[in-house]
Design goal:
alpha+beta; 9 strands; 2 domains; seven-stranded antiparallel beta sheet
């Protein structure tokens, strides 16, 4: 669990654009269904979901809207696909651990560059650009008081002819048309891949190592090795001012390669005029190191 830290009580933006008032005479892609109302349906079709009396709080309809339109008394689709909706914290903990390493959320702390990766993932999630999730924000016509997320691969099918009406009764929220299109695009992205033969885990690990080596990336095993690598840099890669500043600070950090990561990140987008101006370059590097120090404390 993520430790309670200052900031968990931040007042979040309230969306007025993700949902519309639910239309009760039909289902649309992205409709949110109340899991408790669906309990009877799930006990009939997927009894393991109700084992021990526990059930997911919400489900989302993934079936395309065009296949949900009723013709005579039944929809075009033979089956309805429902995906699990989880409280956002479950997803955030999972993705934070994936980005920064297992146990990060239990500890509650990580390095600055790992935190940056976590923040990038969360930003993509907020913008609904992070398959396999679709983020459901708090807002007008939302059925919950906190954010949730549709976990698109975690889905179940039920016969449309038998259970359409029960799903309609369980409907508690409807996405705005543009968000219906967005969840449809994400669903197609997740499920629409072409099946091919893939490398096994061992073969994939060998290829990853090969690609890392080809990219010229090396992890310094010790401070001495890192210093040797720095001394081997040409003036084209890194001028003397840069090298001196980094080497002056090597003894202050452990692991020392994190300092290099922070400094080199700051160097990436420096203007050429700054590189040729040692005092200006030094000031920028010092600011980068100070930011790195604050992030680690």
């Amino acid at each position: 669990m993520i430790p309670e830290v200052p900031g968990n009580d931040i007042e979040v933006p309230y969306t007025k654009f993700q949902y519309v008032e639910p239309i009760r005479d039909g289902l649309w892609q992205g409709d949110i269904l109340d899991g408790n109302v669906l309990r009877g349906v799930l006990e009939d079709t997927h009894p393991k979901l109700c084992k021990g009396g526990v059930i997911y709080p919400y489900f989302a309809v993934l079936t395309q809207s065009c296949d949900l339109v009723k013709r005579d008394t039944k929809p075009k689709a033979e089956y309805l696909t429902l995906s699990v909706v989880l409280p956002i914290r479950n997803v955030l903990e999972r993705e934070a651990d994936r980005a920064a390493g297992e146990g990060t959320t239990r500890l509650g702390y990580c390095t600055a560059h790992k935190l940056a990766e976590i923040q990038r993932r969360f930003e993509r999630l907020i913008n609904n650009e992070f398959p396999p999730y679709f983020c459901l924000h708090v807002g007008a016509h939302a059925p919950f008081a906190d954010h949730h997320a549709v976990v698109l691969p975690h889905s179940y099918s039920i016969r449309a002819e038998d259970y359409y009406e029960q799903c309609l009764k369980a409907k508690c929220a409807q996405l705005a048309p543009d968000f219906q299109a967005k969840i449809g695009w994400l669903t197609a992205y997740v499920y629409g891949h072409v099946g091919t033969n893939e490398f096994g885990d061992d073969e994939r690990e060998i290829l990853v190592k090969k690609f890392v080596t080809t990219a010229g990336i090396h992890k310094a095993a010790s401070k001495k090795e890192l210093e040797s690598a720095l001394q081997g840099r040409t003036t084209k890669d890194m001028d003397e001012t840069t090298l001196k500043l980094i080497q002056e600070n090597l003894d202050k950090y452990d692991p020392c390669e994190e300092l290099i990561t922070a400094v080199m990140g700051a160097l990436e987008n420096l203007d050429e005029n700054v590189r040729k101006n040692p005092p200006m370059l030094r000031r920028k590097l010092e600011r980068s190191i100070r930011k790195f120090t604050i992030a680690k404390t």
